[in-house]
Amino acid sequence: MPGTRVLFENDRIKVWDMIVPPDEAMPAHTHTLPYFYTVVEPGAMRFGESSWRPRDGETAFYAIEAGQPKHDPRMVNEGATRHREIVVELKLRPVNGYDHSNVHTGARRDGTTPPSDAVGTHRLFENDRVRVWDLRLKPGDRLGRHLHKVDNFFVMLSGGLIRFENPDDSTDFKDVQFVDDRVTFVNVPPEGKIDNRLENIGTKAHRNLLIELLA
Predict the structure, then answer these.
(1) How far apart are CA 143 and CA 118, in angstroms?
(2) What residues have CB less than 8 Å from 190, skipping those under 6 apart?
(3) Burial (Cβ within 10 Å: 0-12, 13-18, ≥19) of residue 55
(4) Where does residue 64 fall: left (phi above 0), alpha (psi -120 to 50 degrees), or beta otherwise?
(5) How far is CA 214 from the centre of its chain?
(6) Cα(48)–Cα(148) distance, rounded to whole angstroms?
(7) What is the C-alpha separation between 72 and 28, in angstroms, rounded?
(8) Do 53 and 42 meet the contact criterion of CB atoms below 8 Å apart?
(9) Which terminal residue of the chain has fewer beta carbons within 10 Å of its beta carbon, N or C?
(10) 49 Cβ contact partners less than 8 Å away, ≥ 6 residues apart
(11) 111: left (phi over 0), alpha (psi -120 to 50) or beta
């Protein structure tokens, strides 16, 4: 098990939470599928015989080949704060393709404000398989209207109350209360999916990891 609990699973991905409190350990384990991790709460870690001092947002991808598993040693948290990372396994494509029976169409495509390609506040990582975004909004912060071009999912690290508002029509909005540790998978139509401007209208900081699936 490459994590301490499963947050989400479908035919494309399996999302693990890995939480290691101080003085506790993540047992040795084996990876058999391509995967990546993103650190969201860095601890002071002992990884086998080596020390590891990750940074918040550190991401690494491993392209595991069939029949060539990767064995990770025991990882101990030697620090005073907990260590947390999100680990995502990428499943092999089914013979009949992935399930696209539920497609999210998004916001109206009219208006004068063009959507941005920035679907998060900071891009953490990109290769030919995935693009990983951090999306952080303090109370009162905004993320502009944006366009999702590929299937994606987001891991809610810190929820809160978010308003989705059409920048060209202030009467066109909806408020969504997000819940911590939820994962939402979004199938995007061929023309893309527009999200209206996001504003944190709550009292706590909002953060999620948004992962675009590029292949």
Answers:
(1) 9
(2) none
(3) exposed
(4) beta
(5) 14
(6) 40
(7) 6
(8) yes
(9) C
(10) 73
(11) left
> pLDDT tens digits, residue range 1-59?
889 999 999 999 999 999 999 999 999 999 999 999 999 999 999 998 999 999 999 99
CA separation for the pair 51, 65 (Å, rounded): 27
Q: What is the DSSP string of 44-107?
A: -EEETTEEE---TT-EEEE-PBTTB-EEE--EEE-SSS-EEEEEEEEPPPPTT----SS---BS
The percent helix, strand, coil of the chain (3-state, each to 5) is: 0, 55, 45
Taking the C-alpha atoms of residue 208 and residue 63, their distance in angstroms, rounded to an integer, is 24
Rounded to whole angstroms, how far apart are CA atoms 71 and 63?
13
* Structural tokens at position 172: 């066109």
User: Do 43 and 82 meet the contact criterion of CB atoms below 8 Å apart?
Assistant: yes
